[in-house]
Amino acid sequence: MAVKSKPGRPKLKKKELKKHENFFNREISWLAFNGRVLEEALDPEVPLVERLKFLAIVSSNLDEYFMVRVAGLKQLVRAGVCERGPDGLSPEETLARIARITHDMVAEQYRCLREEVLLGLEALGIRIRQVEDLTRVQRKALLDHFCANILPILTPLAVDPGHPFPHLINKSLNLAILLRSGGRGDQPDRFAVVQTPRMLSRLVPVAGRPGERHFVCLEDLISNFIDKLFPGMKPMGCFPFRVTRDSDLDLKEDEADDLLEAIKEELAKRDTGHVVRLEVGEHMTPDVIERLTDYLELTPDDVYRIEGPINLCDLLSLTELPGLEAHKDKPFTPAPIPALAGKKDIFEAIRAGDFLVHHPYETFSVVVDFVETAAEDPAVLAIKQTLYRTSGDSPIVLALQRAAENGKQVAALVELKARFDEENNIVWARRLEEAGVHVVYGLLGLKTHCKACMVVRQEPDGLRRYVHLGTGNYHPKTARLYTDLGLFTCDPDLAQDTGDLFNLLTGYSQIPVWKKLAVAPLDLYEKVIARIKWTMGAKKSGRIIAKMNSLIDPAVIRALYRASSAGVKIDLIVRGMCCLVPGLPGISENITVTSIVDRFLEHSRIFYFARDSQEEVYLSSADWMQRNLYRRVETMFPVESPPLKRRLIDEILPVYLKDNVKARVLLPDGTYVRRRTEGERFRAQTALLVRPEAPGPEARPAILPEAQAAGGDGSPFRPLTYEDALKRTQNK
Asked: What is the distance between the alpha carbons of residues 589 and 542, in angstroms, rounded to a whole number?
């Protein structure tokens, strides 16, 4: 039950809402999310192969974090910017905290790899060996392989007054080599660098007994035979290292004559940005680290000593080895779409009524079929679609090409600025253009992040527009890994709004008056604030349930604080970053924040607002972040069909709120703890997989009361239960 505001309590003042203690730091909150990903790798209940995948995801996440977020903070420090964020930390103070947390995170990540995951793989006959531990016969075979297939590719790069320190490619694995020349001294007097070939597999098989699948790391193999690359010199040390560079694009769109060419030029610069992180092998000597930090202009905090193979993403090839099925998540088959049963095609199904699709629990093929059917249907005159991220071999891209070749009007809005997908998007944007698709790149200065597809069809009673609006990308591969929702409709108002949106994106037009859509950066922020305020006008009870990836925007957070203070019960399901502080007396006592990290990446955005008996539900492509609300083209759209509303309100959201296995509750000090298990264990994603028709409203779970517990048990990345947190608080 909601805790109503006290009678006569004055409204929260702006000054009260702007206090630093009312906000968590965005960057630290993201690290807490990555810590929850690491928890999945640490969890012995997670299948062994999936634990290795989670370890690799932690590494991949950190790569992007350093290339973008840490790089941005370092830019601010170099520019002398001392401005503090809503949480009160300056860029320099934030970097210091990031370093402390991340060093601990990496240490725990590799402890888990060495002591748990690799040992588990060894029990299955899969092992990463050291070259020096192999038999003479095995070493000879590897030497032959090295000389025939690796040595000719390597390039020795001397570092001395005549040879400046080489430029190192972003995220490349290199070897720092100490060499002694022909003199009698024991001290090395030469220094060189060798980049390991990126096109070669990181794991080199070692011949062994039947049932053994043993490998050596490529850098270990090169290190052991490095003398072949430097004849006449004596290697005194060979140490792997890896650099991470600032890789955010510095794109001045208003100065670019051709956006596509401008992005191509910026991509070429991605490997020339400032180095922001140095990962080194565990045995690298202090003098070599000092050399590298001098060359790369880094501080000791920027150096990460790795006790294991650097970059765990390269170990993912182990997960594809045969015979590991029992140590993976059980395979599943997405459920068919009930609305399509008995219908001759998807257009008949949409005319019969709006319907939702919930991925990956329900098949994504319905979205593909929508575009493919439109491409071949003689009655279809036009297809318009946004494409933020997709795959080069996507059936949707191929269908758009066929549609254009079949003479239909086809427009594709391709977002070239989708971070780290820019190169892929350029390639298939060109292919679409060659097929006759009208490819546009959106509005100046804004990313187009909304997910929309519209088909215009000639029917006996005139033209009809069929629309798909979604929370996730048109990407068939990630549709099996991310949870997302999509709405199929031919509602005239939503169709009119979607048509106006495409006209706005592809041509020149006045900003339309939207009938049902909310569109960022035009009015989405205002609509969100208005709906939050609307719940505060309840005579008896106001309610908000909001599921999203991130909650960052200070203005939205302050609006939620006001609603909480007015007695509105608020449950936030925020997978990633959350800057809102729950449980603050008089401010956020009515707010709970839950994060679910599980097999699938929680990506859907669902917003439920209620005032007494009135209920509204929206789906959106946008999180509540500044970039989504003010710097991107996003959509939020209502779900109005009564059966679909009930499905979201009674069957989907309660499942997430009931999770007591993979759900973590955010405490006022920033710690996430496992939700208390009361009775039967309940895992949301498993329930949705096993039974798409989730429990009805009678099974809606009660939400946990706020816990006034502090975090940290010596290892911040190990799961901490509610009971542990409460016990520790009592002991204090």
From this structure: 14
- C-alpha span between 220 and 237 (Å, rounded): 12
If we measure between CA atoms, which residue out of 192, 149, 151, 147 comes closest to residue 174?
A: 192
Residue 22, domain member (yes or no): no
Check if the beta carbon of residue 30 is closer than 8 Å to that of residue 577: yes
Helix, coil or strand: residue 432: helix
Contact 537/611 with Cβ under 8 angstroms?
A: yes
Peptide bond into 309 cis (omega under 30): no
Lowest average pLDDT, out of 185-189, 211-215, 699-703, goes to 699-703
- The answer to whether the CB of 151 falls within 8 A of the CB of 157 is no
| Beta partners for residue 55, in sequence order | none
Nearest to 449 by CA among 630, 207, 184, 280: 630
Regarding whether 658 and 542 lie in a shared domain, the answer is yes
What's the pLDDT score for residue 700? Answer: 30
Percent of the chain with pLDDT over 90: 72
Could you tell me if 360 and 285 lie in one domain? no
For residues 526 and 494, membership in a common domain is answered with: no
Neighbours of 547 (CB within 10 A): 28
> What is the spatial distance between Cα 600 and Cα 686, in angstroms, rounded to a whole number?
10
DSSP string, 40-103: HHH-TTS-HHHHHHHHHHHHHHHHHIIIIIIHHHHHHHHTT-----TTS--HHHHHHHHHHHHH
CATH (domain of 377): 3.30.870.10
Beta carbons of 582 and 668 less than 8 angstroms apart: yes
- Decide if 249 contacts 262 (C-beta within 8 A): no
Q: Do 268 and 170 share a domain, yes or no?
A: yes
Angle at 319 between CA 318 and CA 322, to 5 degrees: 90
Please tell me the distance from the alpha carbon of residue 644 to that of residue 648, in angstroms, as a whole number: 6
Catalytic annotation on 449? Answer: yes
Structural domain that includes position 309? 149-316
Residue 505 three-state SS: helix
Q: Which residues contact 444 (CB under 8 A, 6 or more apart)?
A: 253, 254
SS3 439: strand
Per the residue annotation, which of 214, 359, 449, 475 is the catalytic one?
449
Residue 479 lies in a domain: yes
What's the whole-model pTM score?
A: 0.88
pLDDT in tens, 590-642: 999 999 999 999 999 999 999 999 999 999 999 999 999 999 999 999 999 99
Helix (H, G, I), strand (E, B) or coil at 582: coil
Q: What pLDDT, on the 0 to 100 scale, is given for residue 20?
A: 87
DSSP 379: T
Query: Does any domain span residue 111?
Result: no
What is the number of structural domains in the chain? Answer: 3
Whether a cis peptide bond, with omega within 30° of 0, leads into 360 is: yes
Mean pLDDT of the chain: 87
β partners of residue 594: 573, 665
Q: What is the structure's pLDDT at 6? A: 43
Same domain as 443, residue 540:
no
pLDDT digits (tens, 9 = 90+) for 69-121: 999 899 888 888 888 989 999 999 999 999 999 999 999 999 999 999 999 99
Same domain, 622 and 684: yes
Structural domain includes residue 237? yes
